Amino acid sequence: MNLPPLPDPQTMLTVAEFCAMLRISKDTFYKWRQIPGAAPVAHKLPNGSLRISGADYNAWLQTLRSEAA
Asked: What number of other Cβ atoms are within 10 A of residue 7's Cβ?
């Protein structure tokens, strides 16, 4: 699967942007959030919406790396 380039660490992604980058549904994102470590850290804004920083996204993605067996 070809993923888009990594976001700028200063960027704040919406849930929709994050899901589009990984080609997953919002339901999948919210299910991942229920499992510790399965989703990147999200910042809750005063209006209740969530944002994922580019730095948190990049760090989370690195935790998913797997060496070939």
From this structure: 19
Domain spans, the chain: 13-63
Q: Which residues lie across from 12 on neighbouring strands?
A: 53
pTM confidence score: 0.82
DSSP label at 51? E
Q: Which helix (H) or strand (E) holds 23?
A: none
From the CA atom positions of the chain, what is the Rg in Å?
A: 12
Token pair of 65, please? Answer: 């790396």
Query: For 1-36, what is each residue's pLDDT tens digit?
Result: 566 677 888 899 999 999 999 999 999 999 999 999
